[in-house]
Amino acid sequence: MNITKQKSPNFNRGRQGHVPDMIVCHITEGGFDGAVSWLANPVSRVSAHFVVAQDGRITQMVEIADTAWANGTNNDRNSNLWNGFSTLKAVRERAVNANLYTISIEHEGRFAETNGVLTPEQLDATTWLVAHIREEVQRLYGEELPPARQHIVGHNEITPRSRPNCPGADFPFDEIIRRLSEDESEPEVSPPSTSNEPSRWAKEAWEWAVSVGLTDGTNPRSPATREQVMQLFYNYHHRVHHLHKV
Q1: Nearest alpha carbon to residue 176 among 113, 129, 110
Q2: What is this structure's pTM?
Q3: Model confidence over 33-50: pLDDT tens digits?
Q4: Which of 16, 31, 32, 42 has the highest CB neighbour number within 10 Å of its CB?
């Protein structure tokens, strides 16, 4: 997938020494183009790191190493943004603006229409984007951002009084995490070679093994099962035994 960049002026450089350990999901309450335009407008005084369209397009507006103005909290008990209102223990216990340790993703949609449900294209793009963000956090900070619910959260969990419906009750957190975890659990296996010719460095040995009957000469580059290895040993043993008799 591709990420289109359109820089927002609404950000702070750096993170004041904080490492991002949460990805916060939002809903735009409008169309994709309008959201990107608004987040790029200095008058709005808001931004997000990424915006994901319902057709799967992704726009990046703030660099991961910088602080977006997306879901800040404060220590004013009279404010709807007070840290103590957060449903997340990690937010309540930190006496800093949540923007400093979060990466925000806006999703095209309207709560009244979707309740947070993503289109198939949007779900695929978001899953890919979260994996990309995790790789970037590892590259930039040398820290892992786990694919777990306490690290992939909703804006409503950061500031429930001011954004109770963002991104929506049906936002597919569990499905995104399931896909990420599934990808991590699958070992990378190289597909077997379809060539029936041995590599140049093994050609002479392969031809000898075929000539003395150790192998039938098929699939020289394919992985061998243990039973195939045992058959090679068996063939070798009987071949050597036969030669000794002769």
Answers
A1: 129
A2: 0.75
A3: 999 999 999 999 999 999
A4: 32
